[in-house]
Amino acid sequence: MDITQLDTPSLLVDLDIMEANMRQVDDFAKEQGIAWRPHIKTHKSIEIAKLQMANGACGITVAKVSEAEVMVKGGIDNILVAYPLASRTKLKRVAALFPLATIILTIDSEEQAAHVQEFFQPIDQEVEVWLKIDSGLKRCGVDPGEPTLRLAQYVSERCPNLKLKGLYTHAGHSYAATDYEQIERIGRYEGECIVASAQLCEEHGIPIEVRSVGSTPTFRISGKVPGITEIRPGNAVFYDAIQVGLGAATYSQCALRVMATVVSHRPGERLVLDTGSKSLALDQGAHGNATVKGFGHVVGHPEIVIQRLSEEHGVASIEGETSLRLLDRVQIIPNHACAVMNLFDQVHVVREGQVIDTWKVDARGHVQ
């Protein structure tokens, strides 16, 4: 059916744009001779994960055990859990997935490694692990260089059930960059610190098979560093207004849209859309940097700026003249696609203005 038959607010994904985004990532990976393992916290969809695998991805990345459970149930069988797990509750859930898929765990400290080893030793389970390296975000991760080597030695010598195969990092602080030159510097260091840390480990007899980098703003930079073997962009499947603000994408590459209706209009002053914080989220930047204007980009209407959100209302100012009237519809490119996807139960798959399918947002709300 035509998208005009949908009620609003509705979440749309343009299949042509999304598939083009996937091909661009895959083409880049092939050019560099590396793998790509997209982070599915952006879309939380089994169908989209399968499309990524069909378009060349070697596996997927998740943030949460519950996301991994959903993806394994959907048939995805190679998953990096990019989050340091230590509790017995979560490790027990992970262990239940091992007969069904390759599950890779993250280590970022000796204390955490000891907890993971203590859990898996009695059941004699071998676990593939990668070390999380802090390349500047100052969130999780061990520092590169000597601290990485010491942690690698601890895991290799003191944790017989943990099989160290990789190092990875996420340069999320690139979202706070003030210009693209800064993003380039962050991206180069992201790749270089992983490669240098891996080489240091190998000089001490610890082989590092995988050297993985992430972050949508930086993957085209860090992925070119010699020695990197894998990239993990997540947001690149959709892109969004924040990525446009950072210079990492254009609006024409933004596949995810929220369709809204004008529900109130005061000519020359403001109009109100039926999309509030429960459908657009409140993001206006990431990691301390505001990169967007308003709460989403209204496609084709630069005169409309969504100035404030309540739960169900998007209140927009009118800068000059507008053709929009009561009951007119607009499409809004969200500031942060990942947060918006997690607000909807389903996404309508659109090609040339026609709804060709509707997919469940399978891991929506799976935050454990």
Automatic annotation (TrEMBL):
Database matches in SMART domains: D-ser_dehydrat (SM01119)
Pfam families linked to this entry: Ala_racemase_N, D-ser_dehydrat
Plastid as UniProt keyword: no
A molecular-function term among this protein's GO annotations: D-serine ammonia-lyase activity
Residues annotated as domain D-serine dehydratase-like: 255-351
Family the UniProt entry places it in: Belongs to the DSD1 family.
Protein name stated in the entry: D-serine deaminase, pyridoxal phosphate-dependent
